[in-house]
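cron nightly-structures :: item 1 of 1
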Amino acid sequence: MRVSVIGCSGAGKTTFGTALAARLGISFVELDAIFHQPGWTELPADEFRARVREKIAGDAWVVDGNYAAVRPIVLERATTVAWLDYSRPRVMQQVIRRSVSRTITRRELWNGNREDARNWLKPDHPIRWAWAQHGRKREEYAARLAEPLYEALEVCRFRTPQEAGAWLESI
């Protein structure tokens, strides 16, 4: 099984993907951990693509993330897409709670990076991004996954965490 977990920022892709990979006993690949280098430096696109190709060369994995630079690489190898398509209020509740928790605990995210409340108002911060992009991303994912190129993919679209949890339990 090769699963691409997609959804809006804050939907819970990492939590879901980690649980799915553990349940299946396969590797978990978090695209944020590859892309965000120390000091929040972004990995150049060609190097990002090369590292992702390396990580998904095997026969079984779970990848979480939506990066356009590597989307074709991931989807051409995936067998399944798990789409966490939750409502905007649900996503906002989760992304705000996550950001507050990360800021308070100062937990390391990737490569020494930590959440900083001073960044919450930046346009690319997950809180603002999730609010601004929720509807657009929902339409974009639906259109993309309906393309003939992806007709062989099993697409599991979950509208609530309960639906996603039930599917996970059925695995």
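cron nightly-structures :: done
The helical segments are 13-24, 31-35, 45-55, 71-77, 88-105, 126-145, 161-170.
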